[in-house]
Amino acid sequence: MTIQPFLRCDIPAFISLAAQEGWIAERWEFDFLLATIPKGCFCVRDSEGKGIAFVTSLRHERSAWIGNLIVAAERRGQRIGEGLFVRALEALRSSGAETFWLTASKLGKTLYEKHGFSSIDTIMRWTGAGRQRFTPHPQDVGGSDARTLHNSFDCLAWGDSRSVLLKAVAERGEEISGATGFMVVQPCGDAWQLGPFSAMDSDMAEQLLDKALGTVPSGTPIYCDVPASNRAALRLFNRRRMRITGSNELMYAGRKPDYRPEYLYGLATMGSCG
What we know:
Number of helices: 8
Strand content: 25-35%
Shape: globular
Order of helices and strands: EHHEEEHEHEHHEEEHEHEE
CATH class of the largest domain: Alpha Beta
């Protein structure tokens, strides 16, 4: 097995594998990741040069995220995935990251525990639908000052600055701001995703969620990945008649993060960047 850099020409092969697994994966994520941390994204190719396994990663200020670990079904059981995972983890450690995050399926959890990862929360995928019936009023959106404030809310939840990621998702979606919270509504395949989504209290979160639901056409699917330990979020999404359609374990290794899930109502991406 030879591990090589993940290149832009490999993106279609990854998206094909992801579709077979039912993952929501779009090209923008890989363009962003490969531009941000090309030395943390890896691939294994077959004898014809086609990618058969991939892993991506993203470095923040003091922490990092490993995502998108996938191996073609016919090549599993050969420790290819573990080799890719270890290579990405080594690259992030070499970059100076202190805390390492990922979300794990039940099948993947044992592998990550083997390499020092521990569960810190469960991420629940909530599914609902848009409620826009009329042209919405303009939302509170921001420039650099607002994004600085948004980064501070996000940092309070995760214990680290993730400004590069926040800027990337804000530029492709719509920012909705409040005095003590923010959300980005961004396209997600044929649906929309709510996140990143942070708020200092449940009242602010409820205001942001209602604004967001009103910007998405009625009946259009909506996803939001939310920490299960945020009980206020559970009550809020239940009241809006959204339902849980899946879950993964949120895990970390390295320095214990100052993680505050009570301020976190939605992740920035569907598992790949946190």
